[in-house]
Records
---
Amino acid sequence: MTITEKTMIEFRDVHKYYGDYHALRGINGTIRAGEFFSLLGPSGCGKTTLLRTIAGFEDISSGVIMIDGKDMADVAPNARPTNMVFQSYAIFPHMSVAENVGFGLRRDPRSKADKARAVEEALDMVGLRGFGARAAHALSGGQRQRVALARALILKPKVLLLDEPLSALDKKMREHMQVELIKLQRQVGITFILVTHDQEEALVMSDRVAVMFEGEIAQLADPETLYRRPNSKQVADFIGTMNFIPVTVLSEAGDTVEIEAKGLGRVSLDASLAPPVRGESPVVGMRPETLTLLYDDQKAAERETEGVIDEVIYFGDMTYYDVYLGGTDVEVRLSMRNVPGRPVLEVGTKVRVAWSPSALVLFR
C-alpha cells in the first residue's frame, strides 16, 4: 500500500443541520488516496454523521464533498465509489457466508463461475478461504466482521468506510483485528476511513486522525503529532493520559516562554511547545512516560523534583504511580516499566522524579 499525494476526498465548508441542531460545523480537510484515516471523538461529536455524508446516506445542508475529483452533490449512495462496513455488520443470518459476500454482485453481468471466483478471492483476502458454505449464524464475532469486510471489498470501492466495526469484539479479538485491518488495507491499497471513539485504536491504525468535538475538527494530524504535540488542552485530554500542571507565564521574548510551574519550578520553554490556541487558564501538559522515578543514586539527565506516592496501579508489564510533587497539592501520574530487579514501590514512599522541559506542552 502506498499513500499518494492525490486527494481522494475533500471537504469544503461542510455543514449539516437536523432542524435547529447543527451537527457538522464547517468541516474542511482532505483525505489522501491509499490513506488509513480515522475520525475520532466522543459520542455525539459528528464523526458518524460525517462518514454517512461521504457514503451519501445523509445529505449535507451546505458545502461540498468531493470524491476522486467529483462533486458528490446529487450522487446516489449506490453510484458513489464507496462501500461501508456497519457497526452491526448487517450480516444476513439466513444466508451462507458465500451468499452474504456475493450479495452485492446480484446485478453484476459476470457469469456465475466468475462471481464464485470473486467470492473466493474476497474470502481469501480476509482469511476465510473455505468458509463459503458455512451458515452465517454459526460464525464468531470476528468471523462476521471479516465477512462484512469481504462483502464490502468484493465491489472494489475506491473508499472503504468503517463505522466502529470492532466495537462489538472483546479486547483480545479487537486488538487482533486492528492488526489484521492494517494488513488488509496495505494489501488492497485503497482508502480506509474509520470512525471510532477509542483513542488507542485510532493511534494504532491510522496514518492520520481527525479529532472531532461538537461537529468540528479540533485537530487533524498524524498519530505522533496528536499525542506529542496536541494543539489544545481539549485534544490533549482526550488523547491518552495527560497530566496538567498549573503555571504562571512570566515572560515571552522571541522564541522563549518563561513559566513558573507548580511543583516543578521555573522553566524556559521553546515557543514551539506552546500551541497558538488561547483562552484557557495556563497549564503545562506532561505524558506519564515522560516522568521517571529515580532509584538509589541515579542522576536525572536534566531536571528532578521530590514527591510522595499517593497511589499505585499495577498492570503487569507497567506500574502507574500517582505522585504529589514537591510538597504541593499537584498530583501527576507517571509510568514505570516493570523490569527484573526493579521493585514496585508502596503508597507513602518519598521519591525523586526526573523530567525534561522538552516534554512539556503549554496550553493557555
---
Amino acid sequence: MTRVLIVTDAWKPQVNGVVHSLEAVAREAAKLGAEMAFCTPEGFRTFGLPGYSEIRLAPAFPRAVAARIDAADADHVHIATEGPLGLAARRVCVSRDMPFTTSYHTRFPEYLHARTRFPMRWTYAALRRFHNAGAGVMTSTTSLAAELRALGFRRTLLWSRGVDHDLFRPRPSTLDLPRPIFLYAGRVAIEKNLEAFLSLELPGSKVVVGDGPARPGLQAAFPAAHFLGMQKGEALARIYASSDVFVFPSRTDTFGIVLLEAMASGLPVAAFPVQGPLDVVTPETGVLSNDLRAACLAALDLAPEAARTQALRFTWANSARQFLDNLKIARAGWRSAEERELFGDRQVVEAR
C-alpha cells in the first residue's frame, strides 16, 4: 500500500476548499490502495491569523515537522499549503534531498494585496521559490497551470476536484422567501467580492451562506439580504436546492468547489468570466459576464438539468486517482540535487 503524508496548515475546524478536498481525496484514495496520513496544526501550539481568527497557524520548528515525517514512514510527502508547517516541511525535504510535491490552492498574492496592498510581485516571487523546489506543483485547472508557468512556476500537474452527487442534488425547496432566490455560499471575506453581488438590484431574495471577517460589515450595509451563517451537510444541500441561481462574484478563486455543489443541486451559475467559472461553467450551465446583474437575470432562463449533468462529470474518485498518478509522475521526473545542478533544473514534468 502506498503511504502518503499530507502536510497542511489548513485543517479542521476550518471549513474551506482545501480541507474539503484533502478529506475527500483521502477517503477515495483508500479505495485505490493508498493510505494518507496528515501533518496538521493539531498537536502544535497555534495562533489565530490576524483578521481571520478562526484560521489557526502552527509556527512549528523544522525538527518537529521532521519528527512527524519520520513517524509517518511515508513513500511520498505532499505539501498542501505554504504556511508555517508547509515551510518547515519544505525545508526538511530540501535538506534531505527528498522528493516532494506541492499544490497551489489559494491566490495569496491577490488576497494579501486586497487586504494590505502588499506588492503581488514580491509574494509571487516567494511562492515561486517555495513551489519550484519540489518535484511538481498541482493546480486545479489547466488555465491556472498556464498562468503559473507564465510566472515562472515549473513542473505543473493537473489535479481537478469533485463533488458529492448524492448529497448535493435537486430536492424540494425549504426556503420560504420571495423568488427568485439568488444564493452565494462560501467564505465571507473581502477577497470574495461579495459587495459586487449584494449591491445589485435584483428581484426576489439574496441569500448568503457562510461566515468570515467581512460578515458584520456586509450584514450592516445590506440589511435586506439574508445571512444564514455557516451551514454544512444536509442543511447546506437543502439551501442549494431551494435556490434559483448561484452567484459567484469572486475574481480570485483558483477553482470554487461551491460551483460544483451548486450545479449538482440543479443551480445555474452567474459569475464573472474569470478563472474558476471559466474552467467549470458552460454556456448551458451558467452565464459569465462582467455585467453580473445581467448574468444573474439571464441565468434564470437556464435548465437546472444541464447544470446537474455538468456537475456529474466531476467525481472525487477521479480526483483521487489523478492525485495519485501525479505522485508517480513527479517521482519519475525527480532529479537529485547533483543532477539538478548539472542540468540547470530544467523542467521535467509538465501539465497534462
---
Amino acid sequence: MEPRFLLLSDVAAELNVSDSQVYHMVRSGELPGIKVGGRGQWRVERARLEEYIQHKYAETAEWVRDNPLNDRDAE
C-alpha cells in the first residue's frame, strides 16, 4: 500500500524538480500541503499531488492552444 502522505523530497522526485522548488510550491499555496509534527514538517497528500498534475496538464494544454507554433506549421 502506498503512503497517503509524501515527503517534499518524494514529491520532488516524482515531479523531477528540486526539493527547494517543491518547498516554494507548498509555501506559496500552489501545491496544497500540510505541516505536521512539532517541527512543522511539510507533507503532501498523494491525491492532491495527482490533482495538481492533472491541473498542470490542463493548464499546459490551454497554453499550447493559445500559443500555436505557426512557424512550424509553415514547414
---
Amino acid sequence: MSGNSESRKKAKVDDFYFLKIGPLWKHFWSDHPAFWFLCGYLFFEYFRPQSIYPAINILPWTQILLMGAIVLSVFDKKSKFKISVVHVCIFLLSCQFLFGYFSADYPEWSIEYREFFIQWVVIFIAITYITTTRERFYILLLVFYLCSLKLAYGTALIWVKRGFSFSSFGIMGPPGYFQNSGELAIQMLVFFGLSYYLMKGFFGLSNKWERLILIVGLLAPVMTILGASSRGSQLALVALIIWLVRFRIFKIKYLISLAMISALIVILLPEEQLNRFDSMGEDRTSEQRILYWTRGIEMILDHPFTGVGYYNYIPYFTEHYPDDILFTNLQGERIAELPHNILIQIGTDGGIPALIYYIIIVGYCVFPKTKLDQPFSDIDRGLCLGVLGFFIAGQFVTVGYYPFLWVSAALLVSLRRVGLANQTVSK
C-alpha cells in the first residue's frame, strides 16, 4: 500500500517538470491556504508587484502574507516542525546576539535594527515548517525561480538598452533588497547557480518554450552581473564558472569554452569597469575597506565572546577610529559605514561564537547532499552553488542580514527533508 501511495506521490510531482502550468496551477489551488500565503509572501518579496504598481502599495503585503501563512499553518495537517542543524545554529546565533545586546555600548542601535535579523528567523521557520512535501517544495522553488527570472531579465534588458555601457551606479533593481546594484548582483549569483543546474537537469525533459525559459534563466543573470559594476560579484561569477569546470578544465573542449567565455566577458565589460579592476586594492575605496576589515578584526579579538554588540559596528568604529574614516557623508560628517564583509559583520555583532554558528550554516548550504535522487539532487547542487557565490561576493559587501543565505538555507533544509523522507518511505 505504501508503495502504491508513493508511486502516486511521485507521479504527481513528475507531472510538473519543468514548468507544466496546468498541473502546477491545479495542484497549487488544491493545497492548503497556509501554503498559498507562503508562496504569496515569496512572490511579493521577490517579484515586488507593489513597487511596479504603486496603486496596490497601500498595505504591508509581505508582512500580511507571512503572518497569514504562520497563522493558517496551525490548521494545516501537513505543516510539521523538524529540527535541523540550521535550526539549532539560528537559535544559538539569536541567543548570541541577545547576549551581545546586554554588553553593547550602543544598545539603541541594536534595538533599532533588531528586525533585520529577527525577520529571517521567522521566515526560515515558516518555510521549513510549511514546506513538507515534494510538491510544495517544487512549487515554492518555481516561485523563487520565476521571480528571480523576471528580475534578471528586466535588469539585463536595461544594460542592453544602455548599449552595454558603464554606469557608476551599475544597474538598479526594484525598491527593496535588490535595489542597490551590489545586492542585485548577489541575487543574480544565487539565481545563476540554480539556473545552471535546472538547465542541466530539466533541458531534456522540456518543450521548446520551457527550454527558452531555461536558456534565458542562465544568460540573463550573467548579463546583469556584468552590467552591475560590482567587482566582488563579478569575481564571484568567475569563481563559480571555474568551480563548475574544475574537474574538466584540462580537457581541450572545456579549455576552449572557458577561453571563449572569458573573452566574451572581457569584450562585454565596459572599459571603465576593467580599469576599476586594475586599480583594485590601490584606490581610495579599497583603502577604506581594508581599514574597515582591519579594525573589524581588532574589534572581534578585543571582544571575542560577544562582539561589540549587534549592529554596533558603525557607532563603535566612528568613536574609536575616527582617523580611519576617509570619506564624509552627504552632510559632511565623518561617520563609518558597515564593514563590507559578512564575516566581520557577524563577528563584530556577536563575537567568535556567532561567527562559528554562521559558518556552520554556510557550510551546510555550500556542500550538496549526495543521497538525493534526481532532479532534486541537481536542485540541491544549484542552491549550494548560489550560496557559494553569495559567500564569495559577501567578502566585499555587508549583506549578512539579506535574504540570500536565509531563503536558500530554508529551501535547502526543506529539500533535504522531503528528499530523505521520500527515500525512507520507498525503503
